[in-house]
């Protein structure tokens, strides 16, 4: 099957800044794909390269097998939901949503009907006559989504779409986006710096750092089997163990990751540790321990006994939980 | 625990007491700050304007030359005499053309300044636009008289380019032509455009500056070519700035009496008519009636702009 989007050794340099540096990536058709990374890692530039707002300084991008070299944004059947939504303030909601259809020359009656249908799809019916300025952040986001979806794009690009929403709304929107993607079957490419969002929504995740992709895989894979220290650290704040400690814990003498929730606290067995702190997170309590001078976090489910500060404890885990990583990065 | 008190003692003195009072009654400060400018604007400025306009409802006694202080619409009737109507139409057409030319010339400049100019280039832009405003208006107009004169640099440059025939053909045309550019309606137009251009560039640039780049990207993303984006997004969003700028260029052209007097043929404009009626002719009512024309036109223009949705994006 032809990939929906294909990056072939793509670079985008701004002078001496290598925003994107030699990226190879295939995004499959119908996939919910997340680009995850800290700010300045190149994930947004990759999205802008797909949309056509940026041109690669090296390599090639193909969209459904067709080369996108030198193709302007308005000739790409790809639509974007912008981080600031970028709704047109001089148009009402219906005209905003119908904008793409109007540009294509669809007659007014048809485009109004289709815009209304799409507003219904994003669960914002009856808001057509309002101006963007009269809507809340969450409503504006739905309009931005409808404005992109009404064009039935081959690929939908979402640039940190949930970043400006508050927690509750964000969680609702995550579920909605996911089910919308499944209903429509359109390829979604989603940029985020929130690892929880990427893991919960995406079929596959690419983790970016300094313009390069560090790892691509399914969320479970990225979470359980990080390939590099950066991924272990950035995705779900795993314990990154230096080679000496990994060896002492029974693994090979390499950098290793150990999930805080995979560690148990007991009185006997395992390895000696000292409690140096505890923070209550709601559903769990994170206990910070000192093991031979290295810091190891343990996640205790809510309700279990939390050892007191400075107490000597024993920590243990299944051998399979210790995951050795590539030494590089 | 340190020994500092939780509530600090008052500063004391007149200024300390005033600070506390103003803090407790913010409206008092607002009132004190707004009163002088409102008095200036309301009484001295608007008051004298209305006093002048009231004059337009008086008439002049044709025998004694004295102003007869009785309500009449006779002066407005005089305004519609062929020669006066001619002045009004000429001025309005000139103002409209000057405004249109200013919009066309100012847009690329304002767009560049708003979208691309950063740091040093922004400073260069502001300096370039504002610098002409620092020199005397009269000096600029007389400089243009020399530039546009038969022996001036424009004639010389066209001669060097072997295009003198083009200038001659243009000057041979009725209405816009004349013996040379400096004594033609074309010359008047050129100088009006030059002198009022900064007043169009600055508000336009301010309006374009408020259009986020993502708005233009969104338009392209939704399939609009640059031309379509210009027409359906950029122009509507820049329209408040264009209207603001055109208020300046339009009303300044309507009221000016110096440029057409120095550069141009003897054709008269509203400003010159007002100057002549209230000065040499001593016909204050007719001068006042003439000044009502630009005010009425600007009011009509703003109403139409509002109807056209120019302020919807505000």
Report on this structure.
- The complex is a heterodimer of chains A (329) and B (314).
- By secondary structure, chain A is an alpha+beta fold.
- Chain A has helices at residues 43-51, 93-97, 99-104, 108-121, 137-149, 167-184, 195-201, 219-224, 229-234, 243-248, and strands at residues 5-14, 17-27, 32-36, 58-63, 66-67, 78-81, 155-159, 187-192, 204-209, 212-217, 239-241, 256-258, 264-266, 271-280, 284-291, 294-301, 312-316, 323-324.
- Chain A has two domains: 5-231, Rossmann fold, CATH 3.40.50.300; 248-324, Beta Barrel (OB fold (Dihydrolipoamide Acetyltransferase, E2P)).
- Chain A is 27% helix and 31% strand.
- In chain A, the strands form four sheets. In chain A, strands 6-7-8-3-9-10 form a six-stranded mixed sheet, sandwiched between helices. A five-stranded antiparallel sheet of chain A has the order 13-17-14-15-16, with no helix packed on it. A four-stranded antiparallel sheet of chain A has the order 2-1-4-5, covered by helices on one side.
- In chain A, a hairpin with a 2-residue loop joins strand 15 (284-291) and strand 16 (294-301).
- The relative contact order of chain A is 0.12.
- Chain B is mainly α.
- Chain B has a single domain, classed as MetI-like (MetI-like fold, Orthogonal Bundle), CATH 1.10.3720.10.
- Chain B is built from 14 helices and two strands.
- Chain B has helices spanning 13-24, 26-55, 74-79, 82-115, 120-134, 137-148, 153-160, 164-172, 185-209, 213-221, 226-255, 259-262, 270-278, 284-307, and strands at residues 59-60, 67-68.
- In chain B, strands 1-2 form a two-stranded antiparallel ribbon.
- Chain B starts with 12 loop residues before the first helix and ends in a 7-residue tail after the last helix.
- The mean pLDDT of chain B is 89.
- Chain A binds chain B through residues 51-53, 72-74, 78-80, 82-84, 86-90, 99-100, 102-104, 147-148, 151, and chain B through 212, 214-215, 217-225, 228, 232-233, 236-237, 309, 312-313.
């Amino acid at each position: 099957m032809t990939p929906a989007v294909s990056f072939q050794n793509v670079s985008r340099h701004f002078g001496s800044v290598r925003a994107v540096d030699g990226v190879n990536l295939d995004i499959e058709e119908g996939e919910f794909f997340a680009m995850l990374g800290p700010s300045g890692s190149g994930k947004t530039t990759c999205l802008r390269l797909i949309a056509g707002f940026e041109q690669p300084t090296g390599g090639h991008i193909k969209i459904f097998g067709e080369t996108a070299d030198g193709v302007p944004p308005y000739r790409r059947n790809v639509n974007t939901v912008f981080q600031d939504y970028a709704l047109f303030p001089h148009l009402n909601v219906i005209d905003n949503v119908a904008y793409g259809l109007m540009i294509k020359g669809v007659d007014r009656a048809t485009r109004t009907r289709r815009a209304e249908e799409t507003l219904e799809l994003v669960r914002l019916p009856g808001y057509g006559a309002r101006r963007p300025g009269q809507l809340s952040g969450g409503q504006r986001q739905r309009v931005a989504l409808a404005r992109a979806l009404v064009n039935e794009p081959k690929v939908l690009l979402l640039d940190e779409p949930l970043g400006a929403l508050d927690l509750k709304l964000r969680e609702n929107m995550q579920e909605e986006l996911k089910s919308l993607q499944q209903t429509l079957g359109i390829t979604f490419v989603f940029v985020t710096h929130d690892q929880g969002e990427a893991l919960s929504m995406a079929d596959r995740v690419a983790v970016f750092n300094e313009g390069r992709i560090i790892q691509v895989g399914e969320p479970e894979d990225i979470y359980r089997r990080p390939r590099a220290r950066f991924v272990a650290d950035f995705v779900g704040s795993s314990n990154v163990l230096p080679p000496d400690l990994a060896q002492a814990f029974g693994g090979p003498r390499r950098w290793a990751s150990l999930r805080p929730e995979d560690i148990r606290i007991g009185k006997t067995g395992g390895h000696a540790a000292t409690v140096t702190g505890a923070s209550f997170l709601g559903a769990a309590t994170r206990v910070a321990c000192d093991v031979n001078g290295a810091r190891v976090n343990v996640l205790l489910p809510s309700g279990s006994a939390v050892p007191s500060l400075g107490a000597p404890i024993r920590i243990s885990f299944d051998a399979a939980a210790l995951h050795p990583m590539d030494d590089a990065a | 625990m340190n020994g500092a008190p939780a509530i600090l003692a008052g500063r004391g003195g007149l200024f300390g007491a005033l600070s506390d009072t103003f803090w407790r009654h913010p409206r008092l400060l607002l009132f004190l700050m707004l009163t002088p400018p409102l008095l200036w604007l309301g009484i001295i400025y608007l008051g004298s304007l209305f006093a002048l306009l009231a004059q337009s409802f008086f008439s002049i006694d044709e025998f004694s030359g004295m102003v007869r202080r009785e309500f009449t619409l006779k002066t407005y009737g005089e305004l519609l005499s062929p020669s006066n109507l001619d002045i009004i139409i000429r001025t309005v057409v000139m103002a409209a053309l000057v405004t249109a030319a200013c919009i066309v010339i100012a847009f690329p400049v304002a767009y560049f300044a708003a979208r691309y100019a950063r740091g040093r280039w922004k400073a260069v832009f502001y300096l370039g636009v504002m610098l002409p405003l620092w020199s005397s208006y009269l000096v600029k107009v007389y400089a243009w008289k020399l530039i546009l004169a038969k022996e001036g640099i424009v004639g010389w440059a066209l001669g060097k380019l072997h295009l003198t025939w083009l200038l001659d053909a243009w000057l041979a045309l009725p209405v816009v032509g004349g013996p040379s550019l400096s004594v033609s309606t074309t010359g008047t137009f050129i100088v009006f455009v030059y002198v009022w251009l900064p007043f169009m560039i600055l508000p336009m640039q301010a309006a374009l500056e408020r259009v986020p780049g993502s708005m233009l990207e969104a338009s392209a993303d939704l399939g609009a070519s640059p031309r379509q984006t210009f027409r359906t997004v950029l122009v509507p969003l820049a329209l408040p700035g264009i209207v603001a700028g055109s208020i300046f260029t339009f009303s300044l052209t309507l009221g000016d009496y110096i440029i057409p007097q120095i550069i141009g043929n003897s054709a008269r404009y509203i400003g010159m008519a007002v100057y002549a009626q209230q000065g040499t002719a001593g016909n204050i009512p007719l001068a006042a009636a003439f000044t009502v024309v630009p005010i009425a036109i600007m009011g009509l223009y703003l109403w139409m702009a509002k109807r056209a949705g120019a302020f919807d994006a505000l």
